[in-house]
Amino acid sequence: MVKAKRSEVPKAGFDLSATREIVLNKLKQLGQRIVEQLVMKELPEIKLPARTTSNIVYDADLRQYVLGPKLVTRTARNVKHLRPLSQLLWMALFSKQLVEKKKTSTLRDAFYNAIGFGIDFEDQNESDNVVTELESLLGVIREDFNIYPEERSSVFGPLVVQYNVPGYEGSRLDLTTIPDGAMIGPAMATARFIKCEAKQVFVVEKGAVYQRFLEEGVSKTFKAIIVHTAGQAPRATRRFIRRLNQELKLPVYIFTDADPWGVHIANVLIYGSALAAHVKELTTPDAYWTGLWATDITKYKLPAMRFNEEDTRRIAELEKDPRYAVDPWKREISYFKKLQRKAELEALSRYSLEYIVTNYLPEKLEEVKKG
Amino acid sequence: MVKAKRSEVPKAGFDLSATREIVLNKLKQLGQRIVEQLVMKELPEIKLPARTTSNIVYDADLRQYVLGPKLVTRTARNVKHLRPLSQLLWMALFSKQLVEKKKTSTLRDAFYNAIGFGIDFEDQNESDNVVTELESLLGVIREDFNIYPEERSSVFGPLVVQYNVPGYEGSRLDLTTIPDGAMIGPAMATARFIKCEAKQVFVVEKGAVYQRFLEEGVSKTFKAIIVHTAGQAPRATRRFIRRLNQELKLPVYIFTDADPWGVHIANVLIYGSALAAHVKELTTPDAYWTGLWATDITKYKLPAMRFNEEDTRRIAELEKDPRYAVDPWKREISYFKKLQRKAELEALSRYSLEYIVTNYLPEKLEEVKKG
After folding, report:
1. Which fold has domain B16-145?
2. In the CATH hierarchy, which top-level class contains the domain A14-149+198-371?
3. Contact call for B211 and A168, based on CB within 8 A
4. B156-189, pLDDT tens digit by residue?
5. Catalytic residue among A112, A210, A271, A324, which?
6. DSSP symbols for A7-76
7. Which B residues in the span 55-94 are in contact with A, Cβ-Cβ below 8 Å?
8. What digits encode the pLDDT tens for the residues A40-99?
């Protein structure tokens, strides 16, 4: 455990109370706009960014997908719009109650709550879509109006956080005191970073590698915060990683399996997903995908499995994606195509359990930094 | 947060050092037996419990599946046995190193490590099977020789644990101090229970319900430890729940979705799985399946989805299983067959987010206690 004096973190950074205030104001403005229209005896309408494929464009400067300028209108003037307009306004009401009551919820809870309220949703997909609409209308991510994913990933390392959720206001946690790592739930996701002695962040896809890093004392020897995504990173974790990078100015290194899914887990952490083109708080464009690369399979002589049809199809898809147009993505995708094989991070255990920490990790960090 | 003085927990209970000692002795005895046979110029052989279907029997007293008296022999005398015998002995070696070095590993790591060692495994299935063989030979669960599942569930409530893993020997954690809940990894799974103010344990399948229980202060108002299984409970969590029941004498109440998979999650927690017939440390026979029942769908007028073919097939399977021959299982399976519908725990949100805590939970506890 890190015992030395920790360096203070700058006072700026994520502030739950301020975020709450901003979101409540946006929601109130939305409500006021509707009320004003009604008072003026106008049929209420709302304009919001179109999320159609043609309006999702890749922004090379921002290095993520963003929404174009196209807007859509939801107006009570059109009888076909009445349903989606009511759904959107109900979701805004539900979100306002969550933020005011300082309670969190999930997409599924929102759906069932709507049903109980008599709001007509065909299925959860339809209600999920309205949550996304509300995000793009307000310009904030849904975690800011307290709708969280159910999945949890976890974190360990020389960082002290200060909670701000009800019952824990001001209480602090030193992340090195929890030997299994601390979960990234709503409390961790909204905590302030108070003291940090880390020099870098390692993000790993696999639980076995996370556990190995913890047991080998990587957080101490490499002065690193270690994040376990547990597969595709939940959105709250994507923002958490972004905060580590932006608020603490820590470089972020990502380790995934060497297969089309692992590659994409890293890519989404860095550049974001096309589905989240309407928000900008979930990406870490300066993070490095550090491994496991396709070329590592050959270089480290790893036990590898042959691609199945799905893998081949997926790699062909990624090749056409603008987020994969630069190295290391481009080079590795092309090597995958040639190799037609994939390997898991745990394959490095063929040398020894510790090899990934004693050899692979320092070698790859060196390689990526040389760029 | 619970601030009152906590009651002391009896000194007995899980002891990591003692377990380590026992497992190391068993492994040494295994090695000695082989060496002695070699010294006597005999071809080494091992007898172990047969895990064939015909030798897996339901024990109504123990209320779980157990292995019958049939044994199988692995002997170097038979050239066909050489491979599985070597695999088993290598796995024993690997496990001994883990326990001695106080490191944990996973099934997948074990497989790749074996490959690097030149041990011939067709695929991970084959090596997983050898781990199970080692469990049944030693009569301990694989977590006791430090092979852990990758999945993590979590826990929150008025309990103080004392860690015993390297670097944390003697350090304590009050589980109410982590607002997102603490993960049940190797450190938590092997921690000693030091102080407990809880009167009962609530086990929930769904993350949304776990979060709801935490935010509504259920651990305080119901004096409860709350465990989130995140679907089918990982084995380390199954043992953890058993320990809460047996060491702390706390009643355990289980809440799952009302569908064939939810029912089985509860059933496996209580009676164990047929696949784990060779071990007895993973069940909690006195736990209660408290909901969501098929009959709750009607009673609480919940939004429910029609069964698909897979659901219907699965319910028919469960009906034939001896673990489902008593109520509430029998009654609920029969009601599922009649209803042909399923519902999620979150469906209770149709009344309000808080309804599950303010109404459903106390009503169901009352109902289950009346029996």
Report:
1. Arc Repressor Mutant, subunit A (1.10.10)
2. alpha beta
3. no
4. 999 999 999 999 999 999 999 999 999 999 999 9
5. A112
6. EEPPS-S--HHHHHHHHHHHHHHHHHHHHHHHHTTPPPEEEEE--SGGGEEEETTTTEEEE-S-EEEEET
7. none
8. 999 999 999 998 888 988 888 888 888 999 999 999 999 999 999 999 999 999 999 999
